[in-house]
Design goal:
By secondary structure, the chain is an alpha+beta fold. It has a single domain, classed as Porin, CATH 2.40.160.20. The protein contains two helices and ten strands. The chain has helices at residues 2-32, 36-40; strands at residues 48-58, 70-86, 93-100, 103-108, 112-116, 118-125, 131-144, 155-168, 174-185, 196-206. Strands 1, 2, 3, 4, 5, 6, 7, 8, 9 and 10 form a ten-stranded antiparallel sheet that branches. The chain is elongated. It starts with a helix and ends with a strand.
Length: 207
C-alpha cells in the first residue's frame, strides 16, 4: 500500500511538472512569435492595468485536497497585448500576457497570507463592442505565510485557468468579472504535500 502511495505521489509530481512546462512553453512561443521589427520597439499603447478582488475556497475531497481554506484575494494585474486583431466573426480578438502579483488573505483555518506571481496566457474575444469574454491559463510561484495542515512547504507553485467577462463602462475604465480554478502544491519537493484545489470568484476594474 505504501509503495502504491509513493508511486502515486511520483506520478502526481511528474504531472505537475509537465503542466508547468507546457504553460512555460506556451508563454514562450507567444512571446517569441513577435516580429523582430516590433521587438526593437515594444508597443504598449493598448496595454492596461487592472485591480481585482474576490473570494476563494478550496474543497476537501477535490483531488487530494484535505483542508477547506478560505481566502480574500487582491490581484493587481498588467495586461500586455501580443497580437491584436486576430480572426474574424465571433472569434475575432487578441492574444495577451497577464502578469499578476496576487495577495491571498487567508481567513480560515489560519489568519495569514499567501503571496504569488502569475504569468498567464490570455485570449480575449472582441466581436461584441461592449462585452468581451476571455479565456486564460498559466501559473507561477506562491509563498505561504499561513499555517495550513498538509502544506509541507512555504514555497509552492500554482497553476490555474479560468473564464472572464470584460464590460466597457467608459473610455478608460472597464468592469471585469472572473471565475477561475486554482491549484497550489509544492510538486512533491516536501512532505506532506496536500494540494489546495480551489475556485475563485473575482471582480475588478481596468484603468
Amino acid at each position: 500500500m505504501s509503495n502504491q502511495k509513493s508511486l502515486w505521489k511520483k506520478q502526481s509530481s511528474s504531472s505537475h511538472a509537465a503542466i508547468f512546462f507546457l504553460v512555460f512553453l506556451l508563454t514562450s512561443q507567444i512571446i517569441m512569435r513577435t516580429d523582430s521589427a516590433d521587438a526593437a520597439a515594444i508597443d504598449t499603447s493598448k496595454d492596461t492595468w487592472a485591480v481585482l478582488g474576490g473570494y476563494g475556497q478550496s474543497f476537501p475531497g477535490w483531488g487530494q485536497t484535505t483542508q477547506r481554506v478560505e481566502t480574500i484575494d487582491l490581484v493587481p494585474r498588467y495586461n500586455h497585448v501580443i497580437f491584436d486583431d486576430i480572426g474574424s466573426g465571433w472569434y475575432r480578438g487578441f492574444h495577451s500576457i497577464l502578469i499578476e502579483v496576487p495577495v491571498h488573505f487567508v481567513v480560515s483555518p489560519d489568519t495569514s497570507a499567501m503571496i504569488g506571481m502569475n504569468f498567464l496566457a490570455c485570449y480575449t474575444f472582441t466581436a461584441d463592442q461592449k462585452i468581451h469574454p476571455y479565456l486564460f491559463g498559466g501559473g507561477g510561484p506562491v509563498y505561504s505565510f499561513a499555517d495550513v495542515p498538509g502544506m509541507g512547504a512555504e514555497l509552492n507553485g500554482n497553476y490555474q485557468f479560468g473564464i472572464g467577462l470584460e464590460y466597457e463602462m467608459a473610455k478608460n475604465y472597464n468592469l471585469l468579472l472572473e471565475m477561475r480554478y486554482h491549484h497550489i502544491s509544492n510538486g512533491g519537493s516536501e512532505e506532506p504535500n496536500d494540494p489546495l484545489n480551489s475556485c475563485k470568484l473575482l471582480v475588478g476594474v481596468t484603468f
